[in-house]
Amino acid sequence: MSTLNPAAHGAASHDHSDAHGHHEIGFVRKYLFSTDHKMIGIQFLFTTLFLMLFGGALALAVRWQLAFPWKEMPIIGNMLFSGQGGVISPEFYTMLFTMHATVMIFLVIIPVLAGAFGNFLIPLQIGADDMAFPVLNMLSYWFMWPAMFLFGLSFFVEGGAAAAGWTSYPPLSVLKGAAPGSLSGQTLWLMGITFVGVSSMMGSVNYMTTIINMRAPGMTLFRMPMTIWAMFVTAILQAFALPVLTAAGFMQLSDRVFDTTFFKPGGLIVNNAEATIGGGQALLWQHLFWFYSHPAVYIMVLPAMGIVSDILAVFARKPLFGYKPMVYSLAAIAGLGFIVWGHHMFISGMNPALGMTFMVSTIMIALPSAVKVFNWLGTLWGGDIQFTTPSINCIAFISMFTVGGLSGIFMAAVPVDIYIHDTYFIVAHFHYVLFGSTLFAVFGGIHFWFPKMFGRMMHEGWGKVHFVLSFIGFNCTFFPMHILGVAGMPRRLADPYNYPYLEHLLPLNQFMTMSAMLMGFTQLILIANIFYSLFYGKKVGRNPWNANTLEWTAPSPPGHGNFDILPVVYRGPYEYASPLVEEDYLPQTRYLPNDTGPASTHH
Amino acid sequence: MGKVWSAFFVFWAAAAVGLCWVSPHYGWWLPGEAASPLGTEIDDLFHLILIITAITFIGTHAVLGYVLWKFRTGQNRRGTFTHGSHNLEVIWTIVPASIMLFISLYQMDVWQRYRVKSTFDQQAMRAPVAEVTARQFEWRIRYPAPGKVLKDMPQPDDLYTVNDLHVPEGRPVVIKLRSEDVLHSFFLPHLRVKQDAVPGLVIPVWFEALHSGEYDLVCAELCGWGHYKMRGRLTAEREADFQAYLKKLSETQFDDGVTSQPAEAAEDENSQAAEDES
Amino acid sequence: MSVRTRYIFSLCTALLLAGCGPSPDPSFVLSSKTDELFRDARTPVVKALEENFGSPNNLVVWAKLPLDYGKAEPEVAGHEEAGWKIKHGRNLYMVHCLHCHGVSGDGNGTTAKFLEPRPRDYRNGVFKFTSTLSGLKPSRNDLKVILQNGIPGSTMPSFVLLKDDELDAIIEYVRFLSMRGEYEIKLVNEMSAMGGVTKDIERRIADGRKDKENGETRESILQELNEAIEGDLPDLQDSIASDLAEDWNNAESPDSQVLPELERVAPTAESLARGKDLYYSKKAKCVDCHGLSGRGDGALTEDYWDVPNTTPAQKYHVRGLHDVWGNPQQPRDLTRGLYRGGRRPLDLYRRVFAGIKGTQMPAFGGTVLNDTEIWDIVNYVMSLPFDGKVSAAPAPEEAPSQEEKVAVTGR
Fold it and tell me: Is the Cβ of C103 closer than 8 Å to some Cβ of chain A?
């Protein structure tokens, strides 16, 4: 279905004689191996939500150890360490934070943004009946499962799961004797990363093609909602950055399995083994890894920014402030994102001249993000702001992203980074942008598009309760981490109180752990709300929010082919409070007498 | 309800600022005054950025709170139909850009003095105090014999110790940082010094301890299960004490159990490090 | 509330409570040899261990043993409760030592299997690097030195940054664990001698069945065993403890120390040459294990060795030497300049004089080699990291040459 022929593809019409011939498809083709982008998006959504709980549980274990070091850990202590009184071992701790990050980054955040929202929304918001490559789309989802299986399996092999951090720096990750997780766990980890990488690349190809080729008549590039722009730019980022990670992953796999020495210098003695033979460089991995992983962090935030722009406009009931600047900012963030990777390596021993160049580019990348924050505030200014669950989550995004962005400036300042690199200041920063920003936008997005996905509303009251508790729990857990970082508490220490200058930080850490528990258990409210609303939520029609974009013209949920009437677009997506009509919203597809047809230059 | 939400977001911002305000009082802040001159400059930069970001944070949240309050729904209003303002875009691009450019240029000099070898104190570079080799999970230290210059190859009269690095105070010193196995990082929080120990590289790290004292040495790069165990100590002392330490170390290291006086024989039974404990 | 809500609520509560359960209490593990005993012999051993040593969270003070428990807390007067010092030691041990050395000091902590060399199993009372004569226990000071210096070349780190009193407390607890372990082994050996091993009993029963008239019956064997145990056990417990106490106390005595009578022979070229000759000689035979170039690859590392105390003699599966803990043991690579027991000339003297307990490094002092010869060997060994040209020695007293002089004028 790669050409858009209005005559032949009126989707939900019953008697089109189509080449598909699959009016009655079985359970397996409909719910498991579906090629329908909506079903695939929903599959991604539920899978990532489940994995979010798992990744969160790993984090709670980390927090437990930091609050009650070398004391009995609930559940896990009993299961795995009963011989020593339920106290976890140091190598287990290294495995906990490694897999927490791995699961959250590769199996939750990236798939929920691109896989769940990207998949569900792109065809709907641009007026297409499905993605350009539906089978590839299905594969992109199913390639997640081998990755999940491999990561899961790694917990049960000798030595346990990978334990060299999600950053997986060699030689720790390539020398088998250097860490228990570097026995088989690390190999499985690398294989898992390859699968998620392939899954992402499949998605990226699909999204770019769909957005470029399959827009409805009248949907010019500058009439696309910000969500689509964000997904588009993100897809480009993935296409350019992922191959580098995959290649680096193969190099590390090769070092481990075939005894090559890309990353292994010679003469190293690990665990009393023979000295290594090699001529490789540990720093090479860092460059290759961060060349991908820095754009990756933008992959993990740009779609959320797009979602926030859309949702804020809907609930401020006025147009997005500065649409084109917002688009250019997205592009600037993405472009600059490719030349800042060295800021993860200021202290690594790389040439200090690079420190200077990367400092300048990193500081500059704060600029488009700042522009976006101001534009969001401008969007709210003068609006008629409705405080619904989606909107308050997105307002929280503005606040959290401001914190995350501002803390980034400290780290971009290289001399200051000397002190705060590898401390909890960094941990605070990335949790603010990934959790405080992206995940809250995801919460907002779930509540906002749930009616479109399932035809029912989520419970608004519990949605707000979930937000408030999550917000409080989140900030009480992560804001003090800035302070811990300033106090010099390094990351990844199983027992920071081993050091005299950190001993006094225990009470603060205990408070943070309690908050983290609150935050963790609060997510069960979201899960409960989702499942409850699936069956008992209030049924709604096509456009419960009175929004402008194309997905709200389709039925809730849309049938196969999405639109019963082929959309034709007459204007941009943010014509709220337009003087042309009495209502405070004006859908993109609504025809007004003065519209000059699809090629209108109105916006 | 809008007022509640506005208050909610303003309250959180105030709480965040409040926490930062009271934290130094509880000791939840920088670990004391920087104990090195470059550390002091780093702290100054930190505080400068803190002020700039605090102003931005407070400003943004003040606007956010105001907007949520003033433009909440339920007042029978219609949103202002505007798509943006070119002038505003220019202003809020240029102004932050200038501030950021200022920040980045202002501190180039500090970075250069910290890392560019040609700016290091040449006397200190010619005579490094010690070679510090990080390994899983300790800091192995090799001093040259008193009066000699540290060579890359271990010398027969080199002095070895572990985890307790002594340096003279009040002048720049250089250590040669190496790693025997995986990545580690040499972090002196009180002096604001940090440098990754990279296997395959020998990296000269310079610092100056302003005052005598004992400072924590922390490993700041994940190096395995014992990453948290790599606790070390920097002991900065007066030059004379430092020389005396090296002399004592030499005597202990080449102790044959006989040469020293009988009264001291029992003392020498203790490890060389135990002596330095007191 | 509605049925639906009630159902959801109870489901959530059930899930949450699933995590709760009784907290696991750590306990000392029993040695594998104890498990080989027949029930009648095993039970008294387990009982004796519990009575005299307790469990990690409920330690017992046994006055017979030379341990500094520290006074019991005042609140528990009139009640034999372990004192503050041993508890302090246990707490520190649990934080710093547990995950390698294990709850019982058996060298089998969770991290242990990933380490090379394996952490020490204290339970046979053997410690490698000591200042005492061959066959004797380590002194408290020896253990302290190990804690302070670590064991370079292994994963035993240096704990020099812990306070003195903390180190003392840990040392007491380690001695406690060692004494407990050795007590267990010795008691088990006595039980074996009395015929308490399950295999032996089963064999005797099987033999007895062959001779129905005069052969032993199960009842008679067990009766004999129980009578022996009942008769001898109390005395055995006491005598084993006394022996242990004597051994450990002996180690503290200055007479047990290995101290050279002769000061170190100057490491001249002649001394190095003599040392080299001795290294290759039939008298010392260093070369057999440590190899022609001192890399620890001597001829004896090629053979398959017998496992001690096995009849018929079994061989180790892995080539080369093994220590008493059954781990493969590579002779030291002397060219690296890395000495696990300390790098002082005194330390190397002690290794040669008294050997390394628990390993195949024999004791040469007082019998095979005299002091001069030992110093010559030490000088030679300390020159191996420098290609045998010059031995590690302090810098000469005379003023260093101008180019090399460090300008330490300060400010």
Answer: yes
